[in-house]
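Chapter review: from sequence to fold.
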Amino acid sequence: MEPLVDQFGRLHDNLRISVTDRCNIRCFYCMPETGVKFQPREEILSFEEIERFVRVAVSLGVRKIRLTGGEPLVRKDLAELIGRLAAIPGVEDIALTTNGVLLQEQAAALYAAGLRRLNVHLDTLSREKFLKITRRDEFDRVLEGIRTAREMGFGPIKINVVAVKGLIDEDVVPMARFGRENGFEIRYIEFMPLDSQNLWDRSRVLLADDMVRMLSEEIAPLEEIPDGDPRAPATEYRFTDGIGRVGFIASVSRPFCLNCNRIRLTSDGKLRYCLFAIEETDVKGLLRGGAPDEQIARTIRDNVRAKWLGHEINSQRFVAPPRPMYAIGG
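The token string follows.
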């Protein structure tokens, strides 16, 4: 089988699937507090449709799956979908990105279904600031979810922190210490232009280099981990005192487009070759219209083949995607 390669020679083996656009918190850099219009439930792909799409994608060389949202744990019976995907021959890795609010009550079912890798979103260890960011008082539930997952044996558990300058600067060091003390890898994600309220401005991005400097000065020097996966979105560092590691997803200051290996399927069945893509390819119509697997495979290949070189955030040519993050999939 011909590998899934774009016109720039990038091999694609990583599929991110949004299972819902709904969410149970309202982070200001992602969603408005009120008045959010979600997709009608009948427009959301069923588990059977997702499973079929994954089987076709795996036949083309996809090996890694990440489930996202919105908040994926608000999707009823998500563990059932994980079990279905884990049983597909060729799937080597399944991960989940979650805000952690529902993690404590669902952790056992997720683990039994075969899930091991988690990314949990948590920007701060301050309850007051958590409420300011998310507009929901769910701080304790998130911490309990993380603790439950660790006790149950999930690993690695990574904590995602969105780095908004002027907001989480004072949280950078405490979050790294939290990771060091509990065996979590903190991943700092530069604030990206994916909000639904046009709040993004480059001056509000807390840059990876600045965070590396802060952590090196306040905790211990950081050194980049050699021989990492060049196609991974995060650049990983370890503390030279031997305790813990951190990662930086520097989409703004250090774009990693040239190494990208990911494609995305939205909850309403649109295929995207980039988080920032302007255009989408409909696959829901194919899945519901009786199209054979061969046609779906051709559609995936055509989408990857059309992939651009990069998102151009740092150029005047950049155009933000018409859909915000929660509607695309994190």
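Two observations follow directly from the output. The mean pLDDT is 92. Residues 14-328 form a domain with the TIM Barrel fold (CATH 3.20.20.70).
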